[in-house]
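Section 5.1 Outputs to date
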Amino acid sequence: MKQLFTIEGKIALVTGGSRGIGEMIARGFVENGARTYITARTEATCQATAEALSHYGECIAIPADLSTLEGIHQFVQAFADREQKLDILVNNAGYMKSRQEYEALSAAMEAFGETDWDMTMDINLKALFFLTQQLLPALKQAACVDDPARVVNIASNAGIIPPHRHTDYAYTASKAGVINLTRHLAMSLAEDNITVNTISPGLFTTDMTKEIIEQRGQAFARSVPLGRLGKPEDIASAAIYLSSRAGGWLTGVNIPVDGGNVVKR
């Protein structure tokens, strides 16, 4: 029982791992002994984060643009040049227009454009599916009955409960899609000894949410049943649980890490 939550010695990949929730999860993996790869579109940021996390363990950067199939293929080849198997895949890379950008469009449904819709869906949903597809050989190589390979998809509370106001329609739709796609993949990949689960974070302090937190962070924290915003260890521990022996018999589940906000709503 003492080793239920260990991920030591495993090989992990966190997309969008250079900042925000991805960086929080990557640090949790690194500190707990997993050789962790991170990828992000901006090479300098990706390399800088990997260098910083390497103070706690082993972290390797492979910069890539996963919004296109070409970029996915290039990344998978670069990863295959380094590793033959993959124990843990965290599909975290995502896109959402900033609050300021969206409000500049008057926040009306009529103003929402096709380019924004397509970019959000390409990164949040399409890339998740095709990256998982292309990494299947490495995941299968790591998988066995007693210790499955793990896919952890990062969705959002916005994919579970509709916002009270006009917001980024493509983001909420894409995150709802991630939750249901996770269930579908869980059934498809169970026979290969690969689990597929989702984490739906509430509000954490990241580059994506800093404007919301600056404007309404204290009020939002008071509205959360557990009375605070998310901390890095909250999201990292959920990912570690799903990736460890403790989470080895869970598949197709969605875990809201949100202080009880979904239940309240």
